[in-house]
Amino acid sequence: MHTERDLARLHAETLLIHGGDAHNATPAVVPPIWQSSTYRAPDSPEAFADLAASINPTQFYSRHGNPTNAQIQEILAHLEGTESAMLTSSGMGAISAAVLASVKSGDHVVTQTSLYAAAMTLMRTVLPQFGVDVTFVDQTDTAAIEQAIRPNTTLIYVESPVNPLMTLTDLRAVGKFGRERRITTMCDNTFASPLNQTPHEFGIDVVLHSATKYLGGHSDLTAGVVCGSKAFVDNAWKMMIVLGSSLAPLESWLLLRGLRTLSLRVERTNQNAMKLAEFLEPHPKISRVNYPALRSHPQHDLAMSQMKGFSGMMSFEVNGVDESAKFDNAQTLIRNMKLAANAVSLGSVETLIVHPASMWSYHYTPEQRAAMGIGAGLIRLSVGIEYIDDLICDFEQALNCV
Ligand code: PLP
Question: What is the mean pLDDT of the chain?
Fold first, then answer.
């Protein structure tokens, strides 16, 4: 068992294996699945009343928490360098609990024009329904983020890197704006994972993840996490139990199992993605690769200054004589991939590939798509941990079909 002081000294790789051990009160090396919705009351009525009023209890009622959640929360808080963490049933569960706990009617939020789609719906549609104003700015324009701040701004919400072009936000600058003006700052860190980027070190107050992605890592669960100060996370927990987005015991157990190998998976993914990006960039059938580790990425210097690794997330443009040809060529490439699965989501062991222009064809006109940076030939890729030569061969043969 490790004390808090010990944990602070451990490397991420070790924390992922041993962090939160103290929450497993059983002799089982692998903690059991606490598949119970409710727990027997302690003997004294006062102790039961205390339990009922406590925040994130581990053995009271499953919507409020369970021992596996507590174990994982300790690991994730240490990985992100925050005081506390809270698990939820999905990434959107984490985002909505954290955001709704931060704003009230009359408040103003500054966010980016590019965000994960459901987070965008929260900002564009849901918050205004509750009297919260939202300003959207180009995340690459740091001065514009500062200029958008108003006296009633209570939240700056960012995501970095972000779809579709792996665009970055200057986390140091956002952290500074928030600290100087006492505004809560929040970053969705899903694409990077805590091993590649830790926004809290740059002054970002709250770090969010869809744990469905790298943290879980096997495409077999949905989960989310809110990392921040104890005061913030406690408040977000109160919102979360009202929204009902608690993580179920089996999903929590699967998430802990997935986390054990996070460091190996992220290391391999980073290496694979770099080699694949270097293969794709000069390819004659590809006009551009968007990957922050490449010198050609317009924010490469920023990436080097705030990321420790660059993850498996990238996008690239397939060539074509016109928009229609690009669309067809992207489709042909995807149809001919033998290893990469044409599926949404990301951060898993297997390589996943999507063609945003066809996926969003009912949602956006070609003009709207283009304005969002989603070209007809754009392909989004989440690189997995397969053997890299096999992956490159797969892309080579699929590109030969284009
Ligand atoms: N944030 C990002 C960057 C995502 O890509 C996603 C899902 O794809 C989410 C949040 C939402 O996560 P979940 O699907 O677990 O609710």
Answer: 96
Crossing angle for the helix pair 249-259 and 67-80, to the nearest 10 degrees: 40
- Encoding tokens for residue 84? 């506390």
Ligand 1 pocket test, candidate residues 112, 114, 116, most atoms within 8 A of CB: 116
Q: What is the pLDDT of residue 2?
A: 58
For residue 188 and ligand 1, the question of a CB distance below 6 A is answered with yes
pLDDT at position 369 is 85
Q: Which domains does the chain have, with CATH numbers?
A: 4-259 (3.40.640.10), 262-400 (3.90.1150.10)
Q: Ligand 1 within 6 A of 394 CB?
A: no
For β-strands 341-342 and 352-354, DSSP reports them as: parallel
| Cβ atoms 204, 178 nearer than 8 A | yes
- pTM (2 d.p.): 0.97
Q: What is the pLDDT of residue 3?
A: 58
Whole-number Å distance, alpha carbon 193 to ligand 1 midpoint, is 12
Spatial separation of the C-alpha atoms in residues 246 and 62, rounded to whole Å = 8
SS3 label, residue 367: helix
Is residue 193 within 6 Å of ligand 1 at its C-beta?
no
Active site residue 116: yes
> What is the dihedral sign for C-alpha 176, 110, 104, 248?
negative
Cα–ligand 1 centroid distance for 159 (angstroms):
11
